[in-house]
Amino acid sequence: DVAYVISAGYIILCMLFANVLVKVDSVTPALAWLRWICSLFFAMAGLAEVEFAGTAEHGIPVGDAVAADFLIHLGHGITLHEVGCLAFVWAFYLLFSVIGFLGLKFLSRSQV
């Protein structure tokens, strides 16, 4: 039951800070750091760059203009591109797998 509550809270956090519903630049700095613990933030940045980079259309914002809104700037001129975003998503996957394994191994009790 606890896992359902924690996972629901994490999913809501990810949806808010994925840079789609709410632009992270418009969030107060006290809450803006939460984007770094959301796997969907990195997944959406990588997906936007793969889908929109290099396309062109007249009259509507597409292509590199849209992909630039999703770029992740790490500081010192370093920008995270699609391979880096994929690496972060895999790191989140590994982290959650290890937490799940350790939780099942040490926190669960046998019902037999």
Automatic annotation (TrEMBL):
Protein name, per record: ABC-2 type transporter domain-containing protein
Transmembrane segment boundaries: 6-24, 31-48, 87-107
Organism: Polarella glacialis (Dinoflagellate)
Keywords assigned by UniProt, alphabetized: Membrane, Transmembrane, Transmembrane helix
Top-level taxon of origin: Eukaryota
